[in-house]
Amino acid sequence: IKRRDYTPAEFTEGILEGNITILSQAVTLVESAKHEHQQMAQEIIERCLPYAGKSVRIGITGVPGAGKSTSIDSFGMHLIKEGRKLAVLAIDPSSERSKGSILGDKTRMEALSREKNAFIRPSPSAGSLGGVARKTRETIVLCEAAGFDTVFVETVGVGQSETAVHSMVDFFLLIQLAGTGDELQGIKRGIMEMADGIIINKADGDNVDKARLAASQFKNALHLFPPAESGWFPKVLTYSGYYNIGIKQIWDMVAEYVRFTKDNGYFDFKRNEQAKYWMYESINETLKDSFYNNKAVTAILSQTENQVLSNEISSFVAAKRMIDTYLANLSGK
Ligand code: GDP
Known about the structure:
Elements: H1 8-16, H2 20-31, H3 35-48, E1 56-62, H4 68-81, E2 86-91, H5 95-98, E3 118-120, H6 129-145, E4 150-156, H7 161-166, E5 171-177, H8 189-194, E6 197-201, H9 208-222, E7 235-238, H10 247-264, H11 266-292, H12 295-309, H13 315-330
Parallel strand pairs: 1-4, 1-5, 2-3, 2-4, 5-6, 6-7
Helix pairs in contact: 1-3, 2-3, 2-6, 12-13
């Protein structure tokens, strides 16, 4: 039977059984811009919610070339061998422009993509960063309901997408490379401050000493930051994603963090804060969609914009006129 023949209840049943084909189709509904798909998706999410929340969610970031795909492949294989089920999701801000996301692409994770206990899904590619992030946030719920106990959310270390990822994960992992002694240059302070673990990749061959040096520089720099709310002091480790060196230590660190924050209550506190954040994000996104899809609004939007451009009216007057038009149309006046 085809996707359109499933009811939300049947979708949910398939997801709870761990049926990957049905899970993928449900994620496609989550990502769809069509109104009826969104309605279906929201109903499926609601039904799945009671079964969600039990995974450990890990954000992974690093600049292109840092070794994210190589690392995720070996991290993932390590976790699969421990008997875990892993979902790899992504938030790629550039996909908005190129309309084709690379992050999360299966072909980048060769070993993992052959594993039945791994679910790899590229970044949703349409809409604003907020919209893309919300879809990934919702996909986490479906993956958890399908029995995935570990979720990776990958992003490129270049900007605002880190904040979005940080708002949906329990542990934030920053992949770095050792360079020429100027390791700390060009790393945005905000990104470092979000990290619960900094891992220096490519610590292999001639690069081992440089990686260790970089690690001690990061450790020193972290001491300059105010203590994290979690009470956890971020760890710095070196490893090689390609040669599979130091992978176990990274997952021991994540496990230690989870134990530590579950004991001191921060784990649940942060999940609650995130739930609150996503409530407001959803409100904002929904209002925006409703506004820009409103017929009365779209009928006069470009004309109003032109009036602003030709200095006929100020931007504030224009904005007020648009909002008034929207509100009047909503109340049917
Ligand atoms: P991404 O852009 O962050 O996903 O990075 P990739 O995983 O595609 O890796 C970029 C390049 O670095 C590739 O040529 C990899 O083979 C190489 N690479 C990744 N991890 C390691 C590592 O641990 N050691 C070494 N020597 N090279 C690596």
